[in-house]
Amino acid sequence: xxxxxxxxxxxxxxxxxxxxxxxxxxxxxxxxxxxxxxxxxxxxxxxxxxxxxxxxxxxxxxxxxxxxxxxxxxxxxxxxxxxxxxxxxxxxxxxxxxxxxx
Length: 102
Fold this sequence. Notes:
Oligomer: single chain
Strand content: under 5%
Helix content: over 70%
Shape: flat
Distance between the termini: 56 Å
Order of helices and strands: HHH
Number of domains: 1
Number of helices: 3
Structural class: mainly alpha
Largest sheet: none
């Protein structure tokens, strides 16, 4: 019996999430003809970036804990908390911008 062993590279997936959010923001910023489409694109871009900001340090510290058995200190918890607060603010602004068009 064969075992299929593979790993999923996490940094490219995180970079792809940021790239999609930035592309949506840029497309929304450059949209001049349709205000509804502009708000949708910019809102979705902000929501995606707001999700990716807390996910990135949480994934990194989760990797360090699982693979290396490290214990999170107060600085790591503070970094995750600050990233979470920043992400929530961006998601709120994105949802507010997205709902302006409806």
